[in-house]
Input
Amino acid sequence: MRTMTMRIAQAMMVTLVLLAPAAAQPLPYHADPDAREILPNLRPVPAIRFLTTADFPPFNFRDANGDLIGFNIDLAKRICTEVNVACTIQAWPWAQAADALADSQGDALIAGLSMDGEAAGRFDYSATYLSLPGRFVTRRNQVDGFTPDALEGGKVAVRDGGAHQQFLARYLPEIEQLPFAGEIEALEAVKTGEADAYFGDAMRASFWLNDNLDCCSFAGGAYFRPALFGQGMTIATSTGNDPVRHAIDWALVRLKDNGTLDELYLRWFPVGFY
Output
């Protein structure tokens, strides 16, 4: 699910994420609750060697001191603590990270690797720990009582050729689309009044909203369509490495149940996208 458009979070956004007060709501329950009953066999898992990248804020990146930080980094550490195994986290260039996992340079890759396409057959994947809904963004004075029906006769900015444009065409065909080359241009159209609303990836929109809360906000509910919007954030493991994958899935359920996953989400995403 990781694409170039997901890497729009620049240094200013990172600063805002670290300093802004939490205004997000807790995460929905993504993990399979039945996994809590499956106690993993940790004998073949003396440690989990996580691989990641260092260029994907706020998930995994380096701070001013050169230390790896981010949502994924904190999550990897908490997984290891939960299953009580040693943990290492090593950063690789994005172009080499998947090959490093395939070559057994690590046990798990936590860096937003897509479950689709070529990678689907190369690796196994954990349960989803962060789904990626679509959401509308409007100007703040239009949020109360918002429904998509209110947009009839208006214009909705959307990234041209993307899955969210397909969603609008399929499920809300009465809405007039105003296509743009990218998400930022589409969101700016709402800010300037060129468009009445934006519809697109809620996580990417939350990055933009960090710097534009005075004008705009999410409106209405979240739309979950994995077949269109992607399966969400998961952790890739080597094919057949079931002990590590089961340990990760078990830890994800426990981290959701004990509130740790919500805590990390609220820390790194002060503008919640659910």
Q: What stands out?
A: The first strand starts at residue 47 and ends at 52. Residues 4-131+231-268 form a domain with the D-Maltodextrin-Binding Protein; domain 2 fold (CATH 3.40.190.10). The CA atoms of residues 157 and 178 lie 5 Å apart. The chain has two domains: 4-131+231-268, 134-228.
